[in-house]
Each structure stands twice: as C-alpha cells, then as structure tokens.
Amino acid sequence: MSNETIYDGLTQLGGDSKLPDRPEDAVLEKVPNPQEGTGYLVRFTAPEFTSLCPITGQPDFAHLMIDYVPEKWLVESKSLKLFLGSFRNHGAFHEDCTVSIGKRLVELLEPRWLRIGGYWYPRGGIPIDVFYQTGEQPRDVWIPDQGVPPYRGRG
Predict the structure, then answer these.
(1) Tens digit of pLDDT for each residue in 39-78?
(2) Is 53 in the active site?
C-alpha cells in the first residue's frame, strides 16, 4: 500500500489549517501504527496549554502530558496541536478540559492504554492537577514518570 493511500483521509497535514474556534469543531485525525503489535509508549508534551475560566473568562494555563500505548492507530500530531489550540477561547474548568482531551483521544485511537496529566498553574492561589487514565499501566512497556514536579510556590 502506498503512502498516498494510507494518508488519503488526512485533511490538515501538509496544508494550511485554521485553528478551530472550539474543541467540538476540531478534527482529530489518526494514521496507521507502523509498529502495531509492538508495545511502546508515545508521549506528547504541551507545556503552554491555554483555556478560559468558564465563569470569569480569565485565561488558565497548564502543562499537559499525554502518554499512550497505541494499538492500530497513532494520533496525527498536527491535528492534535490544532485540537489543543482550540481550547484557547474555550471556557471550561480544569477537570473538564483535562478529562475531555483524554476521552476524545481514547474514542479516536482505541489505544491499549492512555493517561493524561494536567498540571495547571495557580490562579487564585491554588494549583489544580488533574489526572485521567484508562486502566492499569501495561507491565511490558516502559512508562516513565511524567517528570512534572508538584507546584511548590514559595514553599
């Protein structure tokens, strides 16, 4: 099968793409996993994730870490970047943003395992960290710590 056939359904890779106005409008795309049957971890780090407080409209910032063990599919990274960027003008609480991103990826990819850590910067003096995963970590795949230290402030 040629690369052109494999990637025929992709609408964003290799062309101009507008940042979606809302996460609901974002098109997440997937590509076949060329290493299907091999246990390995894929990690995406988004250290400058932004959304809006749904009450005040003030910006909220997070360091997101997305880890998954793929089966048949990989998320196409440009579509993921545009999806995450669509939260910039989206009003939602930290918990909703973090868990919604994880669930949307699970729905698209049907991975063997996925976790997301949302390490939110404090606003109003309280940092909020949100974690979601689909089940027990696979024992046969090296899964490193996410390496994001808890917020210490002046501690």
Answers:
(1) 999 999 999 999 999 999 999 999 999 999 999 999 999 9
(2) yes
Ligand-binding annotation for 63, yes or no, is no
Assigned domain for 51 exists:
yes
**Residue at 152 is within a domain:** no
CB 120 within 8 A of CB 127: yes
DSSP-assigned letter for residue 19 = P
* pLDDT tens string 69-115: 999 999 999 999 999 999 999 999 999 999 999 999 999 999 999 99
The domain spanning residue 47 has which CATH number? 3.30.1130.10
97 part of the active site: no
Domain contains 112? yes
Active-site choice (53, 96, 97, 129)? 53
Residue 53, amino acid: C
Cα separation, 75 vs 67, whole angstroms: 11
Residue 40 belongs to domain spanning: 31-133
Residue 154 belongs to a domain: no
The total number of residues shown for the chain amounts to 155
Domain count, the chain: 1
CB 118: neighbour CB atoms within 10 A? 25
Is the pTM here over 0.85, yes or no?
yes
